[in-house]
Write a structure and sequence with these properties.
This protein has eight helices and ten strands. It is of the alpha/beta class. The longest helix has 20 residues, at 181-200.
Length: 255
């Protein structure tokens, strides 16, 4: 039996995402900045889906993420860990370790038989997250894509601070000493990869799947694979893993 068409909403700290799912087919996706108000972000997602011909008010809908309680048209809320695990199972299969690098936190989820066997989460500091990369790219006056391009051409420069604020001060000092921008960019990327891999060590496995906003950053994927000593699989749809998992739950509830 195919699942009923359903909507999953993931209100993250940085980006809000939506997925419309019909059985095993993703019919539509939408993304927008979360901004100041999660309620406004949910309404903007609903408008984006409406433009694609889907009415969030009338469909089975489950919300997840940082702002999940702020989605007025969702019939249910589900934790991020559950939804990211479900979404990753849909995309990659049910065996392996999911690494989700979000805006403000990083999650590591071990899947066994399509179920969450264990997880670890860094939610105390933005070091090792997308926000860290955003702050450092801004300090260097480049986009995040340009940061990765520069890093490929650079030599690692240690960024030792565990705190984003102190790490930014380190970078200001490096700039003042005339350190090449490529070397600083390489140090920034390696700092993120090191912190993510430290968290991953709590859920170390044989296969890894990258979800979240960095899933389309080839250089990050390469560096994670090199540090983990194992392939890291990803997919352009992997940034929607949380919303996809929420849609799966909504569809099942509607059967």
């Amino acid at each position: 039996m195919s699942l009923a068409p359903a909507i999953g909403i993931d209100i993250g700290s940085t980006a809000a995402k939506a997925v419309v799912l019909d059985g095993s087919e993703i019919l539509a996706t939408a993304v927008c900045p979360t901004g100041f108000s999660s309620v406004d972000a949910a309404e903007r997602l609903a408008a984006l889906l409406q433009e694609q011909g889907f009415n969030a008010e009338d469909a089975p809908c489950v919300a997840t993420g940082y702002g999940r309680i702020a989605v007025p048209y969702a019939q249910k809320t589900v934790t991020e860990i559950t939804c990211h695990g479900r979404g990753a199972t849909f995309l990659f299969g049910g065996e392996g370790t999911v690494v989700d690098v979000g805006g403000q936190d990083t999650k590591v989820i071990v899947l066994r038989g399509g179920k969450v066997a264990k997880f670890a989460m860094n939610d105390k500091c933005s070091a090792g997250t997308g926000k860290f990369l955003e702050v450092m790219a801004n300090r260097l006056g480049v986009s995040q894509d340009e940061l990765s391009r520069l890093a490929r051409a650079g030599a690692p420069t240690p960024i030792s601070s565990m705190c984003t604020v102190f790490a930014e001060s380190e970078i200001i000092s490096l700039i003042g000493r005339g350190t090449p921008r490529e070397d600083i960019a390489c140090g920034v990327i390696e700092s993120v990869v090191e912190k993510v891999c430290t968290l991953v060590s709590q859920g170390k496995g044989a296969s890894y799947f990258l979800t979240g906003g960095l899933c389309d950053n080839d250089y990050i994927v390469e560096r994670l694979a090199a540090r983990l000593g194992a392939p890291v699989s990803t997919d352009p749809r992997a940034r929607f893993a949380g919303a996809l998992g929420a849609a799966l739950v909504a569809a099942e509830d509607a059967r």
